[in-house]
Amino acid sequence: MSMFAKTAGWLHRRAENFLALMLGALFLSFLIQIVFRYLLNLPLGWTVEFVAIAWLWGILFGYAFVVPEKDVIRLDILYALLPPFARRVLDVVTSGICIAIFAWTLPQVWDYVTFMKIEKTAYMKIPFDWVFSIYIPFALAVIIRCGRTAWRAISDPVPYDLPAISAETHDYD
Fold it and tell me: Are 37 and 43 in contact (CB under 8 A)?
């Protein structure tokens, strides 16, 4: 196993650990809010804010660094009915559109995220550029994943390991 593969595997496991800690903290914060609001009649604003930020980061960070391509949820009921060539064309076209949209909006997103350093969250006083900064790696991950999908559709006869047509596979044969 190459040094790059070992390092990538180690980084992926740390990303999984970070996401698990984030989800645990989100759940604990949610429980704290329930106890304080309904048992002690003392609602806490920071817990609602933290849950919203942790949820945002969990979804975007998870997609960008943790969830493998085979586990991404797709609505492909009609897609699976298409012949292999049509699926390849659809993959290339939809990936190209997605890449174009995310690449075109990336400079504006960067400007917005860096501009938001002037604002802070209401309770926790976290600068909004920190809150929204996760969108940049998310957008880059979308571009990379769509590029890989398009490349597989163009170059690989069977782009995924699973040979059967199902809601979680692509079968071009």
Answer: yes
